[in-house]
Each structure stands twice: as C-alpha cells, then as structure tokens.
Amino acid sequence: MIRLGRFRLQSAPMPPAPISLTLRAERWPIAGSFTISRGAKTEAAVVVAELSDGEHRGRGECVPYARYGETIESVSAAIEAMRPAITGGLDRAVLQQTMSPGAARNALDCAFWDLEAKRAGRPAYELAGLAEPKPLVTAYTISLATPQEMAAATAKAAERTLLKVKLGGSGDPERIAAVRRAAPHAELIVDANEAWTRQSLTDNLAACAAAGVTLIEQPLPDGRDDVLSAFRHPVPICADESVHARASLAAIKNKYDAVNIKLDKTGGLTEALATGEEAARLGLSVMVGCMVATSLAMAPAMLVAQRARVVDLDGALLLARDRIDPLRYEGSRVHPPSRALWG
C-alpha cells in the first residue's frame, strides 16, 4: 500500500508469474524384463513435464505407448508445441480442449495439478473435492512366459493378495492353471492384451473360471470385440485397449462389465476422474491401471483408484530403482504419495 498525505492508494495486485516448461525424456531399468503378448522390454521410457512459476514446481510423468502410435519423440514434440500457450497463460481447463487424450496431455495435466496444489498449499485431492486418499491393495503383475516360468515367478509372489497374470494366446489355459497351483490363495485377474480370438475364447474363459479368476482384461482386439455383447461369460470382462476417455464408454457398455482407466489413455487426472464418474453412471465397474513407470506416474492415479473395484498400480514395483520420495509399498498395499513426490 502507498500512502500519499491522508490518502491511501491500494497497490494493484501483482499479475501471476508466467509459467515455464521444462521437458525431459528418461529411461528407467526394469528389474529383469516385462513381457506381454505384444513383446518384452527391459526399461521404462517416460517423458516428464515440469511447470514452474519461479517459486513453485509441478511435475507430471507419462509413458508413450507404441500401441497407440506414440513414441518418446512424438510425445515430446506434442508437449513442446504447447510451450508458447503455456507461457501465454494456458491453464489446466483450457488444456482439455487444446490437446487430445493421450500421454502428452497426461504429463501436462498432472503437472498442472501438482503446481496448483503447491501454489495453494493444499493437497491435490482437496482441490479435486475428494476425501483424503487411503492405502489400497494393488495387483502385482506376473509377466507372460511359459507355464513353468510363470509358476516359478508366481511362487515368489504367492503371498500377495492380488496377482495380475499376463496371457498371450496359445497355451493360456496351461499358464493360468500353473499360476493358480503356485498361488492357491491369491485373487487372480488376467490380461490377454487383445491376444485371444473368437475361436479360443470359450476354452480360455473356461480355464479362467476353473482357476477362480475374478476379472479378464481385453481378451479380444479392439474393433473385433463385438461378439462379447452376445457371448455369455462366466468371468467379468474389462475393457482396456477398447477404451480411452469418456467419449468411448458408450460404445462398450453392452460388451464389457468393467473399464480399465489409465491416465496415459485419458490424457491426465482431470479426464480420468470424469471418466470414472461416467463409468459408474453407465453401470460399469472401474479398474485403475498403469504402464510400467516410476512412482511419479502412479501418484495421480491414486486419487482415481480410491473408488475402483480393482487397482493395478504396481508399475514402480517392477523397476530396478525408483525416484526419490517414491510411493510406499508394504506387501500388497500402496500408500498415497507424499507431497514431496506429487500433489
């Protein structure tokens, strides 16, 4: 405030500091390898977007996924293209209309959430109007291999509450039976990653039912899954590759019982929360999943996971090392992030 004689002039409020963008690609080694029906990898390639106003910093991490035509280069370029808009005052709300769902928007959206929380001095869950998040049981993934190799890997994780079993087509009944023998008490969910066919569906579903599997992810390829609408199945089926954001839910509600929400598909936490609400309105159960990535990528998903029937946020557990201030995993339980990590 400025005083002039007996008059007081109120100083004009300082305009908000412009936001700067820092962008980097990182590679994190996986402990061993991670194998699904589409191939194996030994490292997690991620892109990190960092937004700063000079005092506060917000971070978001995404995983470019080749299944959707994404690469480190294409995702980095899409984020880089937003630099002028971000410097010019783009906010998280406008971001939803400016970028399409996908990994690039996810990194920026989560960085905006983190920055908003740091600026406000309030946790992200509070800004989202949610209750304080609690620790949750997360699945632990058994990679695709021979029945014998999968049984050996399962035996090492047999005391976990929930196991997610990667399947891949031919020989899947033998794989799931071997896993069940190695972990007689764990809840099992399976993920075929689009590897089954209409011809193999009956036998594979029967094998899953016999093993007491409680959920099957994406058995058929996206675009070739219409048969599910008229196919009686003894185990609930969850859409993954067939669903991205809210707009894709209406087309799958008669084919699937559940939907796997991943922030890299929805394009961030903002749309993931909205997708979860719409799924519930349509009567679909919600699963929250992830790519193999660090705790920074898992952290925002913990907010969506609070209302999920199945949680699969073990991506950071599969790495040989993780970030500073990582998520805390205790057995099958994953704890909400510290504010030092995100939100």
Explain what you see:
The chain has two domains: 20-127, Enolase-like, N-terminal domain (Enolase-like, domain 1, 2-Layer Sandwich), CATH 3.30.390.10; 136-334, Alpha-Beta Barrel (TIM Barrel), CATH 3.20.20. The strands form four sheets. The protein has an eight-stranded parallel beta sheet with strand order 7-8-9-10-11-12-13-14. The relative contact order is 0.14. It is of the alpha/beta class. Strand 9, helix 8 and strand 10 form a beta-alpha-beta unit. It is built from eleven helices and 16 strands.
Summed up:
The chain has 343 residues and is an alpha/beta fold. It contains eleven helices and 16 strands. The longest helix is centred in the N-terminal third of the chain and has 18 residues.
The parts where pLDDT drops under 50 for at least 5 residues are: 1-14
Radius of gyration: 22 Å
Major β-sheet, in short? 8 strands, parallel
Quantity of strands, as a count: 16
- Structural class, by secondary structure, is alpha/beta
How many separate domains make up the residues? Answer: 2
What's the number of helices? 11
Q: What general form does the structure show? A: globular
Q: What percent of residues are in strands?
A: 15-25%
Helix content: 25-40%
